[in-house]
Amino acid sequence: MKKILLILCGAFLLSTAAFAKLTVAASLPDLASIASYIGGDRVTVFSINRSSNDPHTVEVLPSYMVKVSRADIYLKVGLSLDQWADGIIDGARNSKLRVVNCSQNIPVLEKPDRADASLSALGDVHPQGNPHYWLNPNNGVIVARTIADALTAADPSGASTYRDNLAKFQAEEAQKMTEWKGAAAAFSNHNIITYHSSWVYFADAFGFNIVAKVEPLPGIPPSPSHLANLVNAIKTQHVKVIVQEPYFSDDAPGYLARETGVKVVKVSPSCADANPTSYLDHFQQIFDALKAVNG
C-alpha cells in the first residue's frame, strides 16, 4: 500500500511540474500586459518599471534581481532603452533565464544616419532608432508574435494556447485599430507638440503631426530661445495640445500654456499594469485624454 501511495505521489508531483506556470519578467508593463494576454493561465507575469516612472532611468535594485532569479523569461524593450535591465539580469544569476529582445522585426523609426561618438552632441539619441515602438498598436502585434514564439520555446505543451491567444490578440487589435483611426480622423487639427520623443510611433500610426518637442534634443531641457520658438509654433500652426509624460517637469509646458492657451495632456507612454487588457485599453485612454482637451 505504501509503495502505491509513493507511486501516486510521484506521479502527482511530475504532473504538477509538467504544468507549472512560466514566470515572465518584463522591463515595461506594456510588454508584461501583452505576455499576460498571450500566456493566459499558463504564465505569471510582472513588470520591473511602472507607468509613472521614466523607462530610460530605472534604478537597479537587489529586489529586482531576486525576482528575476526566479523567472523563466525576461522581455527586454531593446534599442538601448532598457540597458539598465542588463544589470538586473546579470545580478539575478539565473542560468535558465531566456532573454527576449522584443524589438526584433519592428520597423524602427528615427534611425540616426550615423552611429558614433558624435551622437552625444544630439542629446540622448538612441543609436539603433527610437525605442518607443509599442505606442503603435500594429507593433504590439509584432511583439505579441515574438512573445508567443518565446513562450512556445519554453513551454511546447502550451503551444496551442499561445497560438490561439495570439490570434485573438491580432483580431482584437485589428478591430480596435479601426475604431482608433476613426477617432483620430475626427480631430480638426492633427498638429501636436510632445515633451519627449516618446510619441513618434503613436503619431505615425494615427496621422498626428508632431510640430516640435519641448525638449530641443532628447534629454536636454528647453532654453528660453527654444521656448520662444515653441510659442511661435503653437500660434502659427494652431497647436491645441502638448502631450507630456508624467515624470517630466511641468515648468515648460506650464509656461507655454500660460503664454498661448495650449492645453497640456499628461499621459504615460506605458499602460497601467501587467493585466492582459491593459495594453490595448491604454490607447483608448490616450484618445479619451486628447479628446477631453481638443474639443
Describe the structure.
The protein has 295 residues and is an alpha/beta fold. It has two domains: 19-179, 3-Layer(aba) Sandwich (Rossmann fold); 180-294, Rossmann fold. The protein is 46% helix and 12% strand. The chain contains ten helices and eight strands. The chain has helices spanning 2-18, 29-39, 62-68, 84-92, 137-154, 159-185, 200-206, 224-236, 251-260, 278-294, and strands at 22-26, 43-47, 73-76, 98-101, 191-194, 209-213, 241-244, 263-266. The strands form two sheets. The protein has a four-stranded parallel β-sheet with strand order 2-1-3-4, covered by helices on one side. Helix 3 (62-68) packs across helix 4 (84-92). The longest helix is centred in the middle third of the chain and has 27 residues, at 159-185. It is globular and about 60 Å long. It starts with a helix and ends with a helix. The relative contact order is 0.14. Residues 4-9, 11-17 and 117-123 have low confidence and may be disordered.
Q: Layout of helices and strands, plus pairs?
A:
Blueprint: H1 2-18, E1 22-26, H2 29-39, E2 43-47, H3 62-68, E3 73-76, H4 84-92, E4 98-101, H5 137-154, H6 159-185, E5 191-194, H7 200-206, E6 209-213, H8 224-236, E7 241-244, H9 251-260, E8 263-266, H10 278-294
Helix pairs in contact: 2-5, 3-4, 5-6, 6-10, 8-9
* SS elements, strand count: 8
> In which range does the helix fraction lie?
40-55%
Helix run count: 10
Provide the structure class. alpha/beta
Q: Roughly how many Å apart are the termini?
A: 76 Å
CATH T-level fold name of the largest domain: Rossmann fold
Strand content: 5-15%
Radius of gyration: 22 Å
Instruction: Note the overall shape.
Output: globular
Main sheet makeup:
4 strands, parallel
Major sheet strand order? 2-1-3-4
The CATH architecture of the largest domain can be named as 3-Layer(aba) Sandwich
Low-confidence stretches: 4-9, 11-17, 117-123
Domain count: the total is 2
Output the helix-strand order. Answer: HEHEHEHEHHEHEHEHEH
CATH superfamily of the largest domain, please? Nitrogenase molybdenum iron protein domain
